[in-house]
Specification:
Elements lengths: L16 H6 L8 H43 L13 E5 L5 E5 L36 E3 L3 E5 L2 E4 L3 E3 L8 H17 L14 H23 L11
Antiparallel strand pairs: 1-2, 3-6, 4-5
Length: 233
């Protein structure tokens, strides 16, 4: 018995095709007829885009669930076809060679002392992904964590390159709180129950005021103090 081949998808029927067929032989159309035809087709196209979008979202949700189970929270270990007891060596990020036995979790982070699972297609976990010289998705947080005598010490936690500003979630929330306090000092009342969303002119005026204060302090520090001569009695 021959297997039946899958049927090709049926062509989409355009809304109002019967009306367009009646007007197909017309040499001139009124403005109303043209606008109505375009409106029908735009609405149908929007419905197609909307259904296609939600279909992609369902597929993305299924793939994310599979990825999270495989590389995130799965309690199972990957089976190795080599016999148990075989010694495997791999190089860590610090240049040292680590030997492990088959049967251990070989998907662990290659950073020395880290036992977390490695991310997909790399040998490092999310906390140590910057140790991978081949990755191009992450960069270090640019916020200064400490001011040392040798210079500023940056946070350097992994942040996606698409994130602007380049700040980890902790420093991003801290920056929002500092901005909220600065706006309140400027005399604007903003509710603390929601995220600060001031207008642009408010932020610009506050920044200009802070810059002018810094310049005044620097100018006072550079101007020498006048020498006062005491009169002899």
């Amino acid at each position: 018995m021959e297997e039946s081949l899958p049927r090709p998808p049926s062509p989409m029927t355009i809304d109002g095709a019967d009306i367009d067929t009646l007007l197909s032989n017309s040499s001139v159309l009124t403005r109303r007829e043209v606008i109505e035809r375009r409106l029908r087709r735009v609405r149908q196209l929007a419905r197609c885009y909307r259904s296609h979008y939600w279909a992609l979202m369902e597929e993305l949700r299924a793939k994310y669930r599979e990825y999270y189970w495989t590389y995130g929270r799965s309690p199972f270990k990957v089976d190795d076809l080599r016999p148990e007891g075989t010694v495997v060596s791999h190089e860590n990020a610090n240049g040292t060679t680590e030997t492990v036995n088959v049967g251990d979790d070989l998907v662990r982070c290659a950073f020395g002392g880290c036992k977390s699972k490695a991310m997909a297609l790399t040998r490092f976990c999310h906390a140590h992904i910057l140790s991978d010289s081949k990755q191009r998705l992450y960069r270090g947080c640019h916020i200064v964590a400490k001011n040392l005598p040798t210079g500023p010490s940056f946070c350097n936690k992994p942040v996606l390159r698409s994130v602007v500003p380049c700040a980890c979630p902790t420093h991003y929330q801290l920056g929002e709180k500092c901005l909220l306090r600065a706006i309140k000092r400027a005399g604007y009342n903003i509710s603390t129950n929601r995220k600060p969303s001031p207008k642009l002119h408010v932020v610009v005026s506050e920044f200009v005021r802070q810059i002018q204060n810094k310049r005044k302090i620097a100018l006072k520090a550079t101007v020498p103090k006048p020498i006062v001569l005491k009169k002899h009695e």
